[in-house]
Structures are given as C-alpha cells and as structure tokens.
C-alpha cells in the first residue's frame, strides 16, 4: 500500500487539511461577510431591474392596433430594438438574481472560494452589467418611438448622456471584475511552475 494513501498527522494529531482550516478561519469569515453584503446589495438592484424590465416588456410604446391586436409600431426599427433589449434585460436580470441568491445560500466552505464562489460572483456581475445596459437601450428605444417626430436627431446626444452613470459605475467596478476574472481563470500549477523556474 503506497504511503500517500494514509493521512499524515503532526505531533498534535492534526492533518494538513485541519491546519489549513484553522489558519484560514479569519480569512474565510471576512470573505463570507464581504460576499454576503455584496450579494445582498446586488440582489436588491437586480430585483428592481427585473421588475422594471418585466413592466417595460409588457408595455408597448405606441399601443396596439384595435383591429388585430398587433403593435402599431411593429415595423419600426426602434420598436424591434426595444422589444429585443427589454427581453435581454429581463433574462440577464433573472440570471443575475439567481446567481446572487445561490451565493447567499452557499455553505462558504474553504474549497468553495477557489472556483465555485468566484464563478457565481463573476456570472452574477456580468449579468448585472448586461441587464443594466439592455435596460438603458430599451428605455432609449421606447422613448425614441414615442418622440421620434419631436426630437429626431437631437435625441441621440440626450440618450448618450443617460449612459454616463452606467459608465461611472462600470469603471468603479472594473478592478473587482478584473480580479474575479484572474481568480477564476488562473492556472495555479502554471504559477507554481513559473515561480520554481524563476528561483532556479
């Protein structure tokens, strides 16, 4: 029987896993608190986006035709953009909400912080950003359908200004997003190998 099949203990009778759990207890607790607070805050935002996206997708700009029930602006390009963007916003907001709820109901074990939790947080934040962007596109397209004869080309600078808050929010969260991508897709064996090569 190979000796690696048996657990190895130190003089206190602790295995390497027990030592790792004991030495990283405070780090796990702080990580749990940060993940819970982040997931709770994002869940509130995503729930509001999902509510607005659902209400927007069921409210058609221009109304419907009384004869056949079809939208009066169904052949307008802005209406098609509105319909697709509202559906995308609703889908991504529900996906993001499911990811954040999965984080809140997670067991927060040490091995979950390696891949499971970063994956869920990365997918939740990505879906959150896409849902916000899609909601803004849907909002602008719906207003353009209603005010296309009044604003015309002056509407484009106004709609561009509505993207400024989202740009500030995305730029503030960009470092966290990059760290999540690095933590999720990194290769630990490649890092260890590079450190060994540099030491030699």
Automatic annotation (TrEMBL):
Coiled coil: none annotated. GO terms for cellular component: membrane. Residues 33-145 form the PGG domain. Keywords: Membrane, Transmembrane, Transmembrane helix. It comes from the Eukaryota. The chain crosses the membrane at residues 42-61, 81-105, 117-144, 156-178. The keyword Transmembrane applies. This is PGG domain-containing protein. It comes from Morus notabilis.
């Amino acid at each position: 029987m190979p000796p690696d099949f048996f657990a190895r203990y130190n003089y206190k009778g602790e295995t390497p896993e027990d030592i790792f759990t004991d030495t990283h207890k405070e780090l796990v607790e702080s990580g749990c608190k940060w993940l819970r607070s982040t997931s709770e805050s994002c869940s509130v935002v995503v729930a509001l986006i999902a509510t607005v996206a659902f209400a927007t997708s069921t409210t058609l700009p221009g109304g419907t035709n009384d004869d056949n029930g079809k939208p009066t602006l169904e052949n307008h390009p802005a209406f098609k953009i509105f319909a697709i963007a509202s559906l995308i916003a609703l889908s991504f907001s529900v996906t993001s909400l499911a990811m954040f709820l999965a984080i809140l109901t997670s067991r927060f074990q040490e091995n979950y912080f390696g891949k499971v939790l970063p994956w869920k947080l990365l997918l939740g934040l990505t879906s959150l950003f896409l849902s916000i962007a899609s909601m803004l596109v849907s909002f602008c397209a719906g207003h353009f359908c209603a005010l296309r004869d009044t604003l015309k080309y002056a509407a484009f600078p106004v709609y561009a200004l509505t993207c400024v808050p989202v740009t500030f929010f995305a730029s503030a969260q960009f470092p966290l997003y990059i760290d999540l991508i690095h933590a999720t897709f990194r290769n630990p064996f490649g890092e260890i190998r590079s450190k060994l090569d540099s030491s030699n």
